[in-house]
Design goal:
The complex is a heterodimer of chains A (242) and B (597). Chain A is mostly helical. Chain A contains eight helices and no strands. Chain B is of the alpha/beta class and 597 residues long. Classes of the chains: A mainly alpha (242), B alpha/beta (597). Chain A: It holds the Pfam family Gluconate_2-dh3.
Chain lengths: 242, 597
Amino acid sequence: MTDAPRNRQRRAFMRNSLLSIPAVSVGSSLAFRASAAAPEAPPLHDYYPTFFTSEEWQFILSATDLLIPADDTGPGALDAHVPVFIDRELAGGYGQAEHWYMQGPFRTDAPAEMGYQLPHTPAAVYRLGIRATDAHCRRHFSKPFAALDKATRTEVLSALEKGTPDFNALGIANLPSSTFFAFLLQNTREGFLSDPIHGGNRHMVGWKMLGFTGARASFREWVDQYDQPYPLGPVSLNGERG
Amino acid sequence: MNDKDNSAMKTLPSVDAVIIGLGWTGSIMGMELTDAGLNVVALERGGDRTKEDFLYPKPADELKYGVRLEMMQRPKQSTVTIRRNADEEALPQRHWTTFHPGDGVGGAGSHWTGVLYRATPTELSLKSFADRTFEPGFLPEDMTIQDYGVTYEELEPHYDFFEKVAGLSGQAGNVQGEIIDGGNPFEGPRQNPFPLPPLPRTLTDTLFTEATKKLGWHPYPYPSANVSGAWTNPYGMQLGPCNFCGFCSNYGCLNYSKASPQTCVLDALKQRETFSYRTHCEVTRIVKSDDGETVKGVVYRDGEGQETFQPAGMVILASFPLSNVRILLLSEIGKPYDPVANTGVVGRNFSYQITGSIDMYFKDHQFNPFISAGGSGQVIDDFSPDTFDTASHGFIGGSYIYTTQGPGGAIGAIRTPPGSASWGSEWKKNASEHYGHHMMLGTTGTNMSYRDVYLDLDPTYTDPHGDPLLRMTYDWKDNDMRMTQFMAERMREIVAELKPDYHTESFKQVGDHFDPSHYQSTHLTGGAIMGTDPKTSVLNRYLQHWDAHNLFVMGASAFPQNMQHNPTGTVAALTYWSAKHIRERYLKAPGPLMEKA
């Protein structure tokens, strides 16, 4: 092996490291502070989705807000920018199923134990799932999902979870409504609980809710301190502390 | 397909040995064969991975590594189809769920958990044990278990050496026949104690120890290849003490603490001028010689799609077990197994692993589950294949029962009470209140081999080049389910001692069918097994192919059935065993190392 690729890699790493150091702390003795360490993400209403259309975006905002609401337990999916996370994931390799085996034939009626067997990429699951859900809502409530009141939206999400709405009857083939819901719930949780570098978990609100420490990743002296809640807050890959 | 027009295959200058796959076994063979003076090239299907790729904080990214499985083989490049029986249509794993085959330099050895075990003397000679232990007719007629053909005594020096390579940390239970308190009294005798002492004990370890001791069992620390202290191995490679970072299984180690090809072998190997490796080179065929007794090299496709013939004096097949079997089948080396006619060998005796778990909730305990090491945990071996009367419980085999701290990741560790909401304020409140209050009990057991459980080439699904995917025909058998239910009973005894506020169980029952939609284990074994009879094994007891004497096949594909413990220790010991016979005998007089009887 020559050294060239490794040097390139190292240079790229240095560049990334420098970018991740907040301006205020370079050459100063200031300790990291959350406000200094995290470049403030724009407010959610100023975010222009890359993947979602504006109608789809309204669906995602109103659905994730119910899946992980802001409440007495703490901030919710919108505070955490979960919709931004999902938009970025679907616009990227995950959305395109870039690593998945997507050659046919597809046995869409396979038993659940055989795992995911649909012909849709995650991006397509969302595109079709939102279209079908909005069609379902228009048929039953004369409005798209995002325009419904909270109680009705909750009712619709529960129905999706159970797989009740028949997307096939609404013109969307090969997509059980429960599968669409499973993607939505899983990605919402991921956006709430993954490192902020991926666009969600803003200010690490999901981790703080759990007491998870993020990328702190060094605990040798804490292993045998039984039943003592760990005292320090989380750290993100970019060095933000919470 | 991104292949450009490659009507002309490139042929390279010949090398002494070509190694297919650069994980643990490929790295070890690289050291051994260059030591013997050979000129060696390794071909790795995935990308390069160096220790720099694992620098802090890069691996501490649960979404990238723990959820999207960045370290794993790309199903798009090659996956496996699965069916439970011959009447079903096999369907592909479109993204990995039931197991996680590794990819790239280091292979599974980069993302493994670091639990490093030996097989027991009995497990290596299981058929002989069964013949002298059980009444005739006790074992099902279609059970095809066999002896490995190599004994524990023969492998012991190689286990011992690899444990020094990996800086194994833990407590020996049997040193030269002397049983040592606090170790595993049921292990085979070791010539030496562990290189390093156990990792510090977590709260879960301590609770498990107290409960199992009260039950009269023999708890001991997981033998860990996440090292407990500074260690310099026989290759001069250095490991540092594990800091319980919480990112282990599925992750590269950010702390030079987890034994891997990168941390233990490769930097020493790369300094040798007689060794080189090429990444993004996917071997598609091993090429047979006209003499009918040897192979003459391999054909691979490089990252640009260029097909290349690499001639070689010897071929070491050292990829993941499933890939080993697929390459042998695609290359038409060895007779494919036919379960109906009961003929052939390649694909025969595939086995997997049986697991089960209990999850206990303790309101008053705080476990800090993000403080964890993959190889940290506490174990009992009181219910191994030869430690109690399994026949009276209706099975052959055994399982270990263990606890380990975690899982600690935020996405993967959410636990909420059974029957409670999976979203909304109720879920959120439960997730918040329960995180850090769970302790797991697990069991992992032997898996017997059967006539109708095997690997072959799929008739429908292909890879992007048009080559058939590997097809896995696998289902649970009553023997294994009865064993799991027995272990569930023992684990409930531990639960009764520990008195959690509540617990949930996940065990398979007699009549259940294999469910590949959930993670089970990455300990896939068999399909190219070793033995002493060419009618029932692909390899002889030196891992030499019966039909091509300069082809040696490494890895757990050689296991005739699966053992209760983790395979890496035995995989590595078998590699050193094979290398010893290549160096001391084969290179001096190339030819079959065993007569075909």
